[in-house]
Amino acid sequence: MLLQSEIASILLNGLQQGAIYALLGIGLTIILGTMEFLNLAHGALYLVGAYTGLIVFQETALSNGLLYSSGITTLGFEGGFLAALFVVPIVGFGIGLLMERFVAEPFYDRPETDQLLVTFGLALIVEETVKNVIGGNTFQSIAPSTIFGVNVSQPISLPLVGLFPSWRLFIIGIAFLVIGLTYLVIERTDFGLVVQAGTHDSEMVRILGIPINRSYSLVFAVGAALAAFAGLIGASIQTVSPQIGTEQALVPAFLTIVVGGAGSVRGAIAGGLVLGVIISAMTQTYSQWAQIVLYLFVALMLIVKPEGLFGSAEVGE
Amino acid sequence: MARDTTALSRRDVLKASGAAGAAGLTGLAGCAGVGGGGDSEYPALGNYPVEGDEVVFGFNVPQSGSYSQEGADELRGYNLAVEHLNNGGGWVDNWDGLSGDGVLGKTVTAVEGDTATDPDTARQSASRMISRDNAIMITGGSSSGVAIAVQELCQEEKVQFQCCITHSNDTTGGSCVRYSFREMFNAYMTGQALAPVLAEEYGEDLNFYQLYADYSWGQTQQASMEQFFTEVGNWSQIESVPTPLGTSDYSSYLSDVPRDETDVLVLNHYGLDAANSLPQAIEAGLDQDMEIVVPLYNRLMAEAASDSIGGIFGTADWNWQLEDDASQSFVEFYREEHDRAPSYGARIAYTQTLQYAAAVERAETFYAPEVIRELEGHEYSGAGLGNETMRGCDHQAQRDVLVCQGVDPSEQTEDLLLNIVSQTSRDDLGYACDAGPAAECELGDYGDE
């Protein structure tokens, strides 16, 4: 019983961590797969998502903020996080469009090292801008106490696991809803078809007369929106400070696609979950070995299955 | 401000012996353009002699990384100290030896560095300050890993280091050096001050479970908690689990805490780490089954976790609500400049800079061995914590320690986050020179032996 309870707890914690990794991984993998563009600013998009969520959450709070000072005090529900759920992906999408047009496009035909440098530079600029505009302060996580009228501030008792923060259950649900929708769009729509075809052979797609440049913009924007959404989820469970993009998002995103395989959405989902469960399991059993085992696992993947769980060998070559 | 007679006699001996004659030329260079200051009788050592009419202090603080907000407030404290040393005002007007016209007649200028809360980066930054900027004294840091790394470098380079925020027992214990001094208290003293309060509050014969940041500070912190909770309250430790510095999600660690057996959960985390671990512990409902303790508070953590700190016990270096004259004047002039109450990091930064400057004035030289001898055994009372002694055997300040409790979120203001529960007298704290962390301390040489 104790063992079962431990396993259930590991799986649930792993699922929650894995959901964030998967959101990050999907964004990174479709950009890398379709455009063969290495985006080290992916963590910066996570940062933008977290801060956008924070600002929306604060400014729409009932007791203070922009809405309150404008006289709107009777929204009747704690709307901050709900508003952020919609605003953050839209902001991420818009930034993704701009990034693709002004940062990525001039570097598509340049060597990967140039792409790495320009995107890493962009990440530093975003981090420093946040520090200068908003300040280096650390902000509390932005979990609401109620959402859709449901109280999520108290932990709830789950079979086997015992008490578990109900807010984390909610975000596991919403993250997997978004992951599922993204998967359906890529698997079942024309846009998804172009993305998948572009992942395998972008030259052929162009020869077929499909306006792949427009698709590039959309793919980049969707990837950015997913990273920003991951940032919002992260901001609801952890403190928000200017370092989180690099420290919490960038490395996990790359590890996820190494495990899952570059260019594969299914791979990013699987990779994220596998990493989440490994970290959770190691932390709960042999915490000092967690990081070592994580990197050993990724190294092993690179040796045994370099294309990842679902990746195609061509991507990135 | 008692003078250290031992140091005086030693300097007289040095003068009489003419040992400094060998350095006559460098001594002259030190005097050029400043009109004396009595600073020409010692051989060159580290960045001594100080040439020109300016003297450089190096402020090496975390401007990025987990403790960057601490670093920002430390810098505010340092800059106030420079302002007051050069132009008068603040504690300078009340501290013996300081006059407000610089230090030994030289204007104080500062160079700032970023430790990035990382020992290697901090050493590189301090090294640049020593070799490129000729800093005569380095101070700063907000991590014991950083403080220990930099003080070792300063011992090698014969440049004085004044610790800022560092709470590990090792800083003035197993890793102590002659060239470093610490005004802040340590984990051992936290245990001594906190355990009786908790035993009184929560009872005896309880079970406690610890999480601790896995580096010098966290390791000594958890060891001291284990020692004093066991000795004072007869509590039993269930388990003690290390967590990597910079962890942001503690949910897996917290899932593993046995709710049925644990009476007290001790979170030995600081700064951003504590700002994540405490709210996540409360989010998981652990506070419903057990008491939670955060042994060392700081403002960053209290602010970033403000919804979660209500009623949580811990210790603090100093607090703006202390009513003594020195504390209140510090709060006043800090508030004039920055429009809010200072954190304890700002007080330590300010105090350590003034302590060094006053010791230089007493020694009448920047020559480090003499300055060090002035500080060893020095007694002072103008730093907001009553009577203090900078002990000679391990360079650890013997001073009072505050036990605090988080203010309920509904009663918090921007400045009021913690209430002072008790000020434990230094007479009830500390340890002899051959006991506790000091037993492991070997300070090393002065450099003029």
Automatic annotation (TrEMBL), chain A:
Cellular component per GO, a single term: plasma membrane
Compartments where found: Cell membrane
Taxonomy, superkingdom: Archaea
Membrane topology reported for the UniProt record: Multi-pass membrane protein
Protein family: Belongs to the binding-protein-dependent transport system permease family. LivHM subfamily.
GO biological process, one term: amino acid transport
Segments traversing the membrane: 20-38, 44-67, 79-99, 167-186, 216-237, 249-279, 286-304
Organism: Halobaculum roseum
Protein name: Branched-chain amino acid ABC transporter permease
InterPro entries named in the record: ABC_transp_permease, BCAA_transport_permease
From TrEMBL, chain B:
Pfam families named in the record: Peripla_BP_6, TAT_signal
Protein name in the entry: Substrate-binding protein
Keyword Signal listed: yes
Matches recorded under InterPro entries: BCAA_transport, Leu-bd, Peripla_BP_I, TAT_signal, TAT_signal_bac_arc
Record keywords: Signal
Domain Leucine-binding protein: 55-405
